[in-house]
Amino acid sequence: MKPVVRITSRTAVLPDENIDTDRIIPARFLTTTTRVGLGKLCFNDWRYLPDGSDNPAFPLNRPEAQGCSIVVAGRNFGCGSSREHAPWALLDYGIQAVLCSEIADIFRGNALKNGLLAIVIGEAEHRWLLDHPGIELTIDVQGQYIALPDGGRIAFALEPFARHCLLEGVDQLGYLLQHADAISAFESRSAEAA
Fold first, then answer.
1. What is the mean pLDDT of residues 65-77?
2. What is the pTM of this model?
């Protein structure tokens, strides 16, 4: 996992509410344990027409959404099942951050553990971002704010351990491995004391 310190991008808007994990990555594609290639399956049933061509009605297929790595999603993003494939698919697709007024807790946890920023913002800020697609934002993980084009900022909260892992570019196992020597020393001391 790469460190996530700052993300600057134009925004793409997915205004639909209740976009569940099955809509992000349909269950029939959950047969893999690798992350590579899931981006082409991301939003599969919404993104493509039955003949396999791009659906022009899908917001991320529009020309103005190309290259955007920040998505402003409708309320209750990531609801449904707890599949970790959903953040994997979004990351492989090129999305680095999802901003919303309500994000499902399990999805948010899975996203942050995998390096996808899933940021909950206030209702008023969320509505404003939905109404202004294509603006350039900078998300600062260290400072925990989103910089707006006019110089304004939207503060957001991150659980301290998730923030640390994002900034260091490690997952939970990577964090533990960073402390392998201390863990081994503790185990040795505990064995001697027994």
1. 97
2. 0.90
